[in-house]
Specification:
Number of helices: 11
Shape: globular
Structural class: alpha/beta
Number of strands: 22
């Protein structure tokens, strides 16, 4: 790597959002540089679930899913252990398929496709700050002092996003965030074909906590097991998540072998940035994607699908700007259109998710939902569609049209 290089696009962060952007841009012929501070393959705290949204994005990227473990939908359990099955709905706009795949493997696979498309990969390289000229971001400067110049930079550098902060694209106060902790276990549940969700975790005095636990089968010998909670919960900041995890798994069936003897990794945690927590996702040459834009769903904590989709959308905007001529008014409008596309794709669902997260923060409301909502199959099919974004936006069933209408009318926060 020379002390100064020029490209059409620099992407910082090689997770799903950044890799998807690099694949899209490089295939369109843009000279693309993809940077990450890690050495791949690397571990990443995640549930490892790929919902139909993620599958659709992988198909758009022509990334194969063969070899991944197929899952047919969700199995949701209440706090009494009663199970309710919700297969993926058959839709026109989303595939009726889901998978699990360790992030270590998924991210490496995406990087292979980025490299095959022609993107230059720079791993174990840390970006120190953006390169700024006349108030516009025109590249990045690494901790080694190397300058990588480009008319546009895509930030896919995670929830803390050094680039977003440097550009003044700060988080919106009061937005919902989540936290998740997960570990891997050897378990006979590894070959299950449903994503297992437990919609309430035991709290004090028998009150359920507004979080959930999961057991996701990986198809070999292991399962991904974790707990998550929303910041709307009063216990969010004063919960010992390691203790919560241990107490919850100890109440699960012994036959699942989710115990210390069969735990094969340490418990790791991560912050989940939600609800488009940065109100501006493009400014002066910088586009935010994935966790940097706050695209994790407040409904279910799922972020991989939105990360992939935002990476594709951001790169598509850059490709359009390149064709129009970087620096022109038309090119700048093409880049700003990314903000509009992101709001159109995710804004309504994120706002509904915020309302949902505040509702279930009330233990009494959560108890009613568990006691009366879960056993009602008609209600839960509608809720399942809404929570997972599993509906057709154009036409579709009455339930689909109702959700689409709710997303349009829910007010901005």
């Amino acid at each position: 790597m020379t002390r100064s290089s020029q490209a059409d696009l620099v992407v910082v962060g090689a997770g799903p959002a950044g890799a998807a952007a690099a694949v899209t841009a490089a295939r369109a012929g843009l000279e693309t540089v993809l940077i990450d501070k890690a050495l791949f393959p690397r571990d990443k705290t995640c549930g490892d679930g790929l919902t139909p949204h993620a599958v659709r994005a992988l198909e758009r990227l022509a990334v194969p899913t063969n070899g991944m473990h197929a899952v047919n939908g969700l199995r949701i359990r209440d706090d009494q252990g009663h199970a309710y099955l919700f297969p993926w709905p058959k839709l026109h706009e989303l595939p009726c398929r889901g998978f699990t795949c360790r992030r270590r493997e998924l991210d490496a696979l995406l990087l292979q496709h980025a490299a095959a498309a022609g993107a230059e990969l720079l791993t174990e390289v840390t970006v120190a700050e953006p390169l700024v000229k006349a108030g516009r971001i025109t590249g990045v400067i690494t901790t080694d002092g190397v300058q990588l110049s480009a008319p546009v930079v895509i930030a896919a550098d995670g929830a803390a996003s050094r680039l977003a902060n440097a550009a003044g694209l700060h988080r919106r106060p009061g937005r919902v965030v989540g936290v998740a902790h997960r570990a891997y276990f050897d378990s006979p549940c590894a070959t299950d074909n449903y994503l297992e969700l437990h919609v309430a975790l035991g709290g004090t005095a028998g009150k359920p906590l507004p979080g959930y636990g999961w057991v996701f089968p990986l198809g070999d010998s292991q399962v991904n097991v974790g707990v998550g909670m929303l910041s709307t919960a009063t216990a969010f900041r004063n919960t010992d998540y390691s203790k919560l995890f241990t107490e919850w798994t100890s109440r699960l069936p012994a036959a699942w072998t989710l115990d210390a003897v069969h735990q094969v990794s340490s418990l790791r945690g991560a912050l989940l940035p939600m609800a488009l927590h940065r109100p501006v996702t493009y400014r002066q040459g910088l586009l935010l994607t994935g966790d940097a834009a706050g695209l994790v769903s407040p409904f279910n904590g799922e972020g991989v699908g939105a990360a992939l989709e935002s990476g594709i959308l951001a790169a598509t905007a850059v490709v359009r700007a390149h064709k129009l001529g970087f620096g022109t008014q038309a090119a700048e409008q093409a880049l700003f259109n990314y903000v509009l596309r992101l709001r159109a794709e995710f804004g309504g669902g994120q706002r509904l998710g915020m309302m949902f997260s505040h509702l279930i923060a009330n233990p009494a409301v959560l108890r009613v939902c568990i006691q009366f909502g879960l056993p009602n199959h008609v209600v839960m099919c509608l809720v399942n569609k809404m929570l997972g974004g599993l509906y057709d936006r154009h036409g579709g069933s009455f339930a689909d049209q109702l959700i689409a209408w709710l997303e349009r009318v829910v007010p901005s926060a």
